[in-house]
Amino acid sequence: MAEMDLQELPEFCLKPTLILGCGNILFGDDGFGCAVVEYLQSHYPVPADVCLADAGTGVRKLLFTLCLSPARPRRMLILDAFDVGRAPGQLFELDPAEIPAVKMDDFSLHQLPTSNLLRELQQHCGIEVRVLACQTAPLPGHISVGFSEEVQQAVRKAAERIATEYFIAPAAAEPGGVLWNTRV
Amino acid sequence: MGKKLVIQPVTRIEGHAKVTIQLDDAGNVDTARVNVIELRGFEKFCLGRPVEDLPRITPRICGVCPWSHHLASAKATDAVFGVKPPPAGKKLRELCNSVAYMEEHILHFYFLAGADFLLGPEADYSVRNVLGILKAAPEVAKRVVRVRHMCAKMLEMLAGKPIHPQAAVPGGFSKPLRLEERDQLRKMADEALELAKFSITFAKENIFPKYLDVVKSLGVITTGFLGTVTDQGALNLYHGKLRLMAPNGSFSDFPYDQYTEHISEHIEPWSYLKFQYAKNWGCFSMDLEKPGGIYRANTLARINVCDHIDTPLAQKELEEFRAKFGRPAQLTLLYHWARLIELLYNAENAIRLLDDPEITSTETRVQVTPRAARGVGCVEAPRGTLIHDYTTDADGMITNVNLIVGTTHNNAPINMSVTQAAKNLIHDGKYDQGILNTVEMSIRAYDPCLSCATHRLDGKLGVRLDILDSNGRLLESLAN
Q1: Residues in chain B with pLDDT values less than 50
Q2: How many other C-beta atoms lie within 10 A of the C-beta of residue B239?
Q3: Which A-chain residues 21-80 have CB contacts (< 8 A) with chain B?
Q4: Rounded to whole angstroms, how far apart are CA atoms A72 and A68?
């Protein structure tokens, strides 16, 4: 088998910084991550060393590839919606290392444990992994497009801070710096 | 007092997926039930929307099989508008389908089913992960990575974006394929074929013989099958007629837009998801000894219903498969073997399409005009026959939508397979994590499409095994 030419790898493997927006825009605030990516793309010039992507509901496949790829980003920021009982619209960071290893129902590719994949990437693949979360308002139980007012505002705030740290003045950012003060 | 075992991830939306095994007073399995979520509110959301929006919206339903929804939706819009895509448009769609299939079947076999076969069903969950497989079979993993990359790259070249496709449009395909792109894709398809050949050979030599006892016993049920075939009876995953095969091998063929005349729905009070069954076979029953109306979809079903495969290597594998297991083959774990035959077929099909001079034609779509109509689109999603059924008004706005996803066809069989597996493995109230994982293997074979409507990252999800008494009181809880 021919050895892999690194240039054949997708962009998300090759650029030093990877920012992935996750979520489903059909389910209210769940689309937070995708909305932040869209806001960044339309309001800021994305530097050449940053891969900014809307992963939608397909992030697991990307993470699989990263786990096995011979080339990986140095750091990765995941943008996602969470429901952990905070005030709607509140932004906070999660460290994958702090998330306990759990077994998920791996009945299908739909159920693969994303949190476990992130931990593997952080602990075994040398990637600095950060998760920027936004607390949702109660999610609809059926398809319903559109954000709560709190999360709508959080999209802009998140984008501004990400642009400051990753786009405009990346050299000024502290290694492993925290985007927000509160942590889970 | 009977006990109830519950395998349930905790999710934000109630009732995402749950397995409940009910033990009787002697500690033997009485029943097993599998609940999966269905997509709710989709029809309401679509009402009043332009029908051409749906091929753009539906890929967002599912992060694992976006291409299947995208193509079924595009075909439904073709039917609503009363048009047929030009040959290049049709072939480009089919090519994307084959490439998407390859990417997915590779991922499923090596990293989902692979964890069962390479690491063993008794392996601790902490090693049943991607890096665990990389450690167990590093050279295989590297090869898989390369080909998956290529498949994603192929889709990006064909459709402009690898995630949430939009290239299939009403009336055809939005982007013609240039000659230089075709030449690049052709080389990639060759390499994908090599991996497909390697995969099935590797599995036949190293995996299936080792687990033949499990294959012959786990989750085995007797059902009919549903799949798509061409007019000549050949396997086809993009277009054809539906074939409904009874357990004895007899079958009936019908156009997919007449599915309601052959397939009906049954409702159980304990399930969110309906149970599809063959309405002309009698009453619905999930009794293991005397099932009624039950059929399966997905890889094994398609391999069973087709008379032949019109690509040479896959056809040869089909002949070998049938010589070993007959037709129709009923062993549930043969879904994995069938998946590898399909992987081979899709690689050969991709090469065949790329070698077709028509595929680089610039005529890839036709114009459409709104009208009041009903249109049905049907493709074989990796998990089973996928049907999109749309009705529009004179302005082309949606007035009704119905989706039947692949897993819906398998809802009853999944329940039956889990019941069968649990009954064989759990006796006298004794079970452990390895046994429960083995029960889960019977579900994994079907690769059920649980709605990715939302997802969670916070790790608070986990499998919690609750043992409840027959009054619902918690007796014991196992947590990972």
Answers
A1: 1, 9-16, 452-466, 478-480
A2: 18
A3: 22-27, 30, 53-61, 64-65, 67-70, 78, 80
A4: 9
Tell which wins on pLDDT, A5 or B59.
B59
Per-residue pLDDT, B58: 87
Please give the residue range of the domain that contains residue A82: 10-170
Q: Which residues contact B455 (CB under 8 A, 6 or more apart)?
A: A22, A23, A24, A30, A57, A59, A114, B63
Give the position of tokens 């493997």: A13
Query: Which DSSP letter does residue B112 get?
Result: I
Chain A contacts in chain B segment 433-472 (CB below 8 A):
440, 443-444, 447-463
Cα distance between the two ends of chain B: 26
For B85-220+331-366, the fitting CATH number among 3.30.200.20, 3.40.50.300, 3.40.50.1980, 1.10.645.10 is 1.10.645.10
Measured between alpha carbons, how far is B290 from B100 in angstroms, rounded to an integer?
Answer: 37
Distances (CA, A) of B323 to A145, B163, B329, B336: 52, 40, 10, 17
Q: Which of residues 281-310 of B touch A (CB under 8 A)?
A: none
Tell me the pTM. 0.84
Site of tokens 């394929």: B177
Q: What is the pLDDT of residues B198-216, one digit of tens each?
A: 999 988 988 888 777 777 7
Tokens of B264: 């009906």
- Rounded Cα distance between B120 and B433, Å, is 13
Please give the pLDDT value at position B92.
Answer: 98
What is the phi/psi pair of residue A161, to 5°? -70, -35
The answer to whether position A147 is within a domain reads: yes
Gap from B15 CA to chain A (nearest CA, Å): 11
Into how many domains does chain A fold? Answer: 1
Measured between alpha carbons, how far is B88 from B178 in angstroms, rounded to an integer?
A: 12
Structural Rg of chain A based on CA atoms? 16
Q: CATH number, domain at A158?
A: 3.40.50.1450
